[in-house]
């Protein structure tokens, strides 16, 4: 029984037909509304695809969701009536349309199909089609659904009007809730922790922003704190906010969570309170895959507000909306024998094409301008094969076909991961994390990839004579003190001391330029003219992938990159830095060396640690002359951002 113009409904159902399996020959109740809105399609999509907030603004009840037997089960109460259902995986084309299907075991309906379709009218105007197709449960269910349409349509008109005003406003509010009032006890604890953070001389702006966020933020934004994204939004350094959050965790304001993340949907599969609980692998029933935790993107560190300050439960007002999977630009489920044409608009970049539940992917590039026909405007994709690699145009016609006997879900997703995630490498290379959470360790059978790291080794030159002249006790004190000085330099440059090996040190950095700046600072600190210490150092640098492992209950770095960096020590003497070709080729390194007036010697080097003979570049820092400036001045202000 339609509620819309029959011609408009017929045209809509031609674009979005019912499947015979879903409808099952039963009568349907169908709502179709159109809203012409004075906003661009992309801006509207960003809001309505966040259906958790949209549904909350509509006044719908909070949902309870649970994964059981590979399916997502949901329940809620609306208007005093309880509903229970199994969620079918959503399908969507980003910026164009999305479809949600539920199979109810309790409620007014047996089936509902909800579809949003955006039809651009002009650059700043879009027509939104909102469709609900119901298979009612008996006469009473049908009656209630018919009575509810008018109320729901008015609610949509109200919220969409507020959304349009919010898009135009510098201070959007429709999706936000008024901040709760903290109890006196909670307010007192928050104030006490903030005072303690200031006593530790931590950055004031980061403390203030965090405290305001805890007091005022929407619960949907507060449950899982991603500090890299927050730091960018607040205009502060990621490093500053990380320091504050680490200390705030120790002081009981926050809780740290080690999250196991599915590599496909990028959803959190487990939230663990200790690093030692991180498993070797995980399982995502929604994506139907098992995965290892050794990949760099499989673990993310987030923070939660301690419940003694503000209780922030994990809330759902929707179950699987595109806003939770912004990297997925297209997800389309095709029944056996089905064919479908879709027209996604993909921003330029690299994408992965895959099927749900399968590991194989095909990488394609979307390019902005077609060069002599190099960028294809159409692509055929027939299951079960993946299409061949190609350069694609942003406005793409995609012909999907599933001739197989099984349903297939086609997916196009961004290959690049979000920069908002705080990864293990960011913490393992942070001195304050190592100092504050020294009890955190990896399980002995877990190896975490920490991505590309710059490994720096220092080694004492003339150590035999040094120990003979000072004796064991005197040598120990001086070596210990030099460890402290090196740790300060590493920290100032944004790196961290990973371990000491006798009188040598190994440090890790995220950026080659930062490691090189730290290396120069060390050589100038321990120059041949220094009189209060006889320690003189050689330094080696290399960059490449590493893994983090448990070594004697301490987080250590391991792999070919570490071994190669250590071997480069053979190419340097006191006051010299030996660096691999990969270091010299890194962004900013040549410019920095030129500014320092560095003269590099090319040293042929052959070691099994490298694939073949290489040229090592050696910088004799002492040979450049003594500069009367503090070592820290060479790295102050040059600390790279995290990632």
Give the tags.
alpha+beta; 17 helices; 643 residues; disordered C terminus; 8-stranded mixed β-sheet; 14-stranded mixed β-sheet
Describe the structure.
It is built from 17 helices and 27 strands. It has 643 residues and is of the alpha+beta class. Strand 10 (281-284) and strand 11 (289-292) form a beta hairpin.
What's this model, at a glance?
With 643 residues, this protein is of the alpha+beta class. It has four domains: 6-168, START domain (Alpha-D-Glucose-1,6-Bisphosphate, Chain A, domain 4); 184-305, no CATH class; 327-414, no CATH class; 438-634, Nucleotide cyclase, GGDEF domain (Alpha-Beta Plaits), CATH 3.30.70.1230.
Characterize the quaternary organization of these chains: single chain
Q: Count up the helices.
A: 17
Look at the structure and give the mean pLDDT. 88
Task: Identify the CATH homologous superfamily of the largest domain.
Answer: Nucleotide cyclase, GGDEF domain
CATH architecture identity of the largest domain: 2-Layer Sandwich
| Shape category | elongated
Q: What name is given to the CATH topology of the largest domain?
A: Alpha-Beta Plaits
Helix fraction? 25-40%
Total domain units: 4
Show the helix and strand layout.
Elements (H helix, E strand, L loop, with lengths): L5 H10 L4 H4 L5 E9 L3 H8 L2 H8 L5 E5 L2 E8 L2 E13 L3 E10 L2 E14 L2 E12 L1 H31 L15 H16 L4 H13 L2 H4 L4 H8 L3 H13 L3 E8 L6 E5 L8 E4 L4 E4 L6 E7 L22 E7 L4 E4 L6 E7 L6 E5 L9 E7 L8 E11 L6 E7 L9 H5 L2 H6 L11 E13 L2 H30 L3 E6 L2 E6 L2 H14 L11 E15 L2 E5 L1 H8 L8 E4 L1 H4 L4 H7 L4 E6 L8 E7 L23
Helix pairs in contact: 6-7, 9-10, 13-14
